[in-house]
Amino acid sequence: MTISIYVLLIIAGCFLITWIIRVSPFIFLAKLEFPSYVIKWLEFVPVCLFTALIVEGMLNQEDKVGYILNLESIVVAIPTLVIAIISRSLTITVLAGIVMMAIVRMFI
């Protein structure tokens, strides 16, 4: 497989733009002092994003009519939620969810 210089430049440009967009806010915002209410509000952002990803994964779109629940995801979500409440660790929760989903997919 060969790669042209044009494709290589496009890949490098996409990398650079993506990196700038994702890293620059951290560089600029690291020097600012936020009020306590903003810090408190920002603590909820990871939980909201994680919840949105999980709920989206638990729904399957049927045609253009509506959504149905994904049984595999429901079976895995309940014990994963319990693990999340007990451990309060995103890493442990994600790893447990992945392992449980693998086990469920082996049998369903």
Automatic annotation (TrEMBL):
InterPro entries: Brnchd-chn_aa_trnsp_AzlD. It holds the Pfam family AzlD. The keyword Membrane applies. The chain crosses the membrane at residues 6-29, 41-59, 74-104. Keywords: Membrane, Transmembrane, Transmembrane helix. This is Branched-chain amino acid transport family protein. It comes from Mammaliicoccus stepanovicii.
